[in-house]
Amino acid sequence: MSVIHVAAFRSYDVVIERGALDRSGETLSRLSAPCAAAVISDTNVAPLYGDRVRASLEAAGFRTVSFVFPAGERHKTLAGYGEILGFLAENRLGRGDLVAALGGGVTGDMAGFAAATYMRGIRYVQLPTTLLAAVDSSVGGKTAVDLPAGKNLVGAFWQPSAVLCDPDTLSTLPEEVWRDGCGEVVKYALLGGGPLLEMLRSGSLKDDPEPVIAACVAMKRDIVAEDEFETGRRKLLNLGHTFGHAVEKCSGFTVSHGCAVAIGMAVMTRAAVKRGFCGEETLAELLALLERYGLPSETDLSAEALCEAALSDKKLSGGRIDLIVPEAFGRCRIVPADALELSDWLRAGGAK
């Protein structure tokens, strides 16, 4: 069991423990008097864990209701978000109640955004069931939905009251969903190097995921504590994401988030080598890790299309965007760039 404390405007613990879902009611009862709890999940996760979570919450005295939406990024929309708000209102949840986000990153983003805005903000907890959500999206308080123009363009910073991560849920992941989470894990290894990189080199991630999850969460905890609202150092967590989000959008979200981030990292690192920011050995190690964990490193999408998509990125401001450029494993820098330079970076990174 690992417990990682996150200091933010609402401080909370991330509990990483096998069996955490079945003890969720007991754990949350120590944070809150029994109240109404809306369990928000998708059609993939609800049949696996919805009843177990509701039973645990009800045994601890919570009154539960459940909302299930169609699985997939294409449902992370204003319309889907509106349906969650309507459900909360119809079931008369009040400011003293809470939302439980049970699932992967899409569920956490949508349920968190609904919690951030319903009645001007009610409590919510994250119950991540995918590797990607466990290592990244469940922690840090970013919540959002997509617009046709781009990913995560409508959202809010709203910290959870707790994150309960049960590594046992990872055993039910389809291989492609597991692989997707590996994309974010490799991102953290490129950002931090050190013990996490050694764990990925050893190939122990699938056999013993808890130390890897804890290492990623601890790294994100430290960055969020320093820069909660992404005005400085937290931008480093966008490594691979500017071009990755463009890949997702241009593919019609047929390329999943973790795979798109992997492509984004590879493109950026190739460009960094050509522009003299890092050495060939860093690129070689990154490509070897991506291959080891079954992740892509190239795209057939054109530089022109990717550039156009990137221009809708929420990180673009005043015609400029901060690119996260690797120098070596454990060392990345923030490089301000003019929007007109994006196509040059993409072509340097191998986009056609």
Describe the structure.
By secondary structure, this protein is an alpha/beta fold. It has two domains: 171 residues, Rossmann fold (3-Layer(aba) Sandwich), CATH 3.40.50; 174 residues, Dehydroquinate synthase-like - alpha domain (Dehydroquinate synthase-like, alpha domain, Up-down Bundle), CATH 1.20.1090. It is 44% helix and 20% strand. Strands 1-2-9-6-5-3-4 form a seven-stranded mixed beta sheet, sandwiched between helices. It has a two-stranded antiparallel sheet with strand order 7-8. A two-stranded antiparallel sheet has the order 10-11. A hairpin with a 5-residue loop joins strand 1 and strand 2. Helix 9 packs across helix 12 and helix 10 packs across helix 13.
Give the key terms:
352 residues; alpha/beta; Rossmann fold; Dehydroquinate synthase-like, alpha domain; 2 domains; seven-stranded mixed beta sheet; two-stranded antiparallel sheet; 11 strands; 20% strand; globular
Oligomer: single chain
Shape: globular
Beta percentage is 15-25%
State the end-to-end CA separation. 47 Å
In CATH terms, the superfamily of the largest domain is Dehydroquinate synthase-like - alpha domain
What's the architecture of the largest domain in CATH terms?
Up-down Bundle
* Alpha-carbon Rg, integer: 20 Å
**Secondary-structure class:** alpha/beta
The total number of structural domains is: 2
Main sheet: which strands, in order across?
1-2-9-6-5-3-4
- Helix count equals 13
CATH class of the largest domain: Mainly Alpha
- CATH topology of the largest domain, which one? Dehydroquinate synthase-like, alpha domain
Helix content: 40-55%
